[in-house]
Amino acid sequence: MAELNKLLRNYILSKRYFNERNEVAQQLDWAAWLREKGLADRSLQVVSKLKGNKVLEIGESFNRFHIEMRIAEEEHIWELTHNQIKGDLKIPQLAYYLNQYFYLYRNELANRYLLQQKGTQLPDLDFSQYDLDFYINKSSLIEISQHFYAVFKKEIPSMLDFEQLLKILNSKEDQLSFETKKELYAYLRSACTLLINSGNTSLILILHLLHKNNLERGYFSINGRMSPNVYMNLVQVAIRVNDYEWAANFTEEYKDLIIGGDEDLYYYKFNVAYILFAKGSFEKALDWLPDAPSNVHYHHLVRILELKIYYETQSDLLLYKIDAFRKFIERTAPKTIAPNLREMDVNFLNILLQLAQSLPKDKARSARLIKRIEEKKLIADRAWLLEKAHALG
Fold it and tell me: What whole-number distance in Å separates Cα of residue 73 and Cα of residue 370?
């Protein structure tokens, strides 16, 4: 009887799910599956078709608002999964549809309650009030998310901010689901990266340890695969703490698990080139350096590494390459790269040019460059530039 009951339940739920009235939900789930498997074009086609669905053309309704919110959510998740470090990830669009759905649903509940109040004695409820403190006291997740929000509102977080985030996340970790911890640790790593980029280089080892811990716990996994950004970022951080063996092993172990695949081996080649460069095999690194893709974020990574290789090999092409990358930043980057990232690249180019034009064994020049690098709040590859500035003297 138990098996028969299970079979009957599965049949009824399947009939309910595959009812034609549930077609939009089916298509959204299909788009999500395609996205998770790295079939980007197919996933976008399904979402695009959904936006023209006849349900959205028959006038406003609770169901329509719900559908619009879910479509906007799927578009946002797709952008987030394939984050190119540009654009707004369609967050304003999702926030608009979320608020539209939230206010309609809240008012619907308020109207039902007020009508019920006409027939029976019920206490007054003010549905227009949003008491955040009440919900923070009731929910560890809301409390933690509010802490992150307060930190990310700041232009540059402080070390104390990071320590408090780490402390509260560790203390309440047992109360959170696996997926929630996965998301919150991603925020924690981002906060750590912001601090490193602003000059707190002592946190690089902490970030590497976080990476290793989170990798072991499966926090980077998306259905058994990982995003290209993660695949490259973990190696770059490992190299900064001289953990070459771990970086090489990771590069080989996860090269076939990148979301969307790596047909031209761009991500794999970049990691190999980065490791070879760190070990001082500059010519080999140049041989492994992949062609710079049209994607602005990855183009930036290839160009920075290429400039560092040309500096180390004292190539005659260095000044030409610096000029070419500067023009790219001035003409193309303002439309697609956040101002803080542009500032980091420009500051890097300025210091690199000064290094390239300096004579060796110039202690006074070395001291001035070190001071300039340390005074920059935002600068790409700060540790490498400081190393080169010290070597100059």
Answer: 46
Per-residue tokens: 127: 């549905």
SS3 124: coil
Count the Cβ atoms, other than its own, within 10 Å of residue 161.
Answer: 19
Strand partners, 225: 222
pLDDT tens digit string along 259-301?
Answer: 878 878 899 999 999 999 999 999 999 999 988 766 667 788 8
Q: Kindly state the helix (H) or strand (E) to which residue 20 belongs, with its residue range.
A: none
Looking at residue 126, its amino acid is D
State how far the Cα of 382 lies from the Cα of 377, in Å rounded to an integer: 10
Q: Can you say whether the dihedral through the CA atoms of 334, 336, 340, 342 is positive or negative? A: negative
Q: Which tokens belong to 261?
A: 């695949």
- DSSP assignment letter at 129: -
Comparing CA positions, the residue from 188, 257, 181 lying closest to residue 226 is 257
Name the H helices within the chain. 2-17, 23-36, 40-51, 62-81, 91-119, 132-138, 140-152, 159-172, 178-197, 204-216, 228-240, 244-253, 266-278, 282-288, 296-312, 318-331, 333-336, 339-356, 363-375, 382-392
In whole angstroms, what is the distance from residue 57 CA to residue 239 CA?
54
With tokens 């790409």, the residue in question is 380
Q: Helix, strand or coil for residue 95?
A: helix
Residues paired with 222 in a beta bridge: 225
Residue-level pLDDT at 381: 85
CA distance 211 to 213: 5
For residues 225 and 30, give the distance between their C-alpha atoms in angstroms, rounded to a whole number: 18
pTM above 0.85, yes or no: no
Three-state DSSP at 289 gives coil
Q: What's the rounded Cα separation, in Å, for the pair 127 and 1?
A: 47
Question: Which residue is it, tokens 């959904």?
Answer: 50
